[in-house]
Amino acid sequence: MYNIFDTHAHYTDSAFDADRTALLETFPEKGIRYIMLASTCTDDIKGNAELARKYDYIYTSAGFHPENIDDIPDNYIDIVRNACSDNNKTLAIGEIGLDYHYEGYNREKQIEVFENQVILANQLGKPVIVHSRDATEDTLEILRKYRPSGVMHCFSGSAETAKEIIKLGMYIGFTGVITFKNAKKAIKALEAVPPDRLVLETDCPYMSPEPMRGKRSESTMIEYTAIKASEVKGVPLQELLDITCSNAMKLYGIRGE
Q: Cα separation of 24 and 219, whole Å?
């Protein structure tokens, strides 16, 4: 397999501290053409930018995740804007969005921070990488209001929600979740996504696919997600990888070699 684009990864995570360099140096020879790193906080933005500078095939984003809302600095917009200016491999604003999963979430603050980052993305002409958990209605309302380009990552919503996102001109990213035995909802959503709006991701070190579930995820494991997606979409495996790689390159404005 080749032309693999892992559109969402977290290689600054401590889960990779022991072998990060060894992994990243070998990925290109294993069919990984590109990786997009998703940022969640200030340290992440800096660390991801360093990795993108070091490895030609790695790109990065800059943004603040809703789970970090309580610790977000007052100048977060300046931090994201400066990150985009300082590194020409920072191609997106993310990982941003809404997460109402845990008790005590600050809905108003999350919406404010999400909106401000979407506005910045539109100003800079960059796509957004959107995280949405238990917040579908508010997420869609903001996306409809500002109409950014971008991707709904690690999609876990319904087929109906997927169709609404497609109407907005966005892409939808699927992880190893589609390989799980209880993934009926995710499969229905995948069936509803046109091939030209589909991208693949690991969200590593999380979301390991079957049969690797329970282990640390990394980019080569996208193979299992791709196999399942090719079965669902009725497209040969390598053709699906070619399509999803091309989609991601369009999403992030990568011209290729």
A: 9
Nearest to 110 by CA among 81, 92, 135: 135
Position 257 pLDDT exceeds 80: no
Continuous H helices in 92-236: 107-124, 136-146, 159-167, 184-192, 222-233
**Phi, psi of 67, rounded to the nearest 5 degrees:** -70, -15
User: What one-character-per-residue DSSP string does 221-252 give?
Assistant: GHHHHHHHHHHHHT--HHHHHHHHHHHHHHHH
Q: Is the pTM of this model over 0.85?
A: yes
62: which strand partners?
A: 93
Give the integer Cα–Cα distance in Å for 65 and 130: 9
pLDDT at 17: 98
* Residue 26: DSSP 8-state: H
List, for residues 168-180, the tens digit of each pLDDT value. 999 999 999 999 9
pLDDT of residue 171: 98
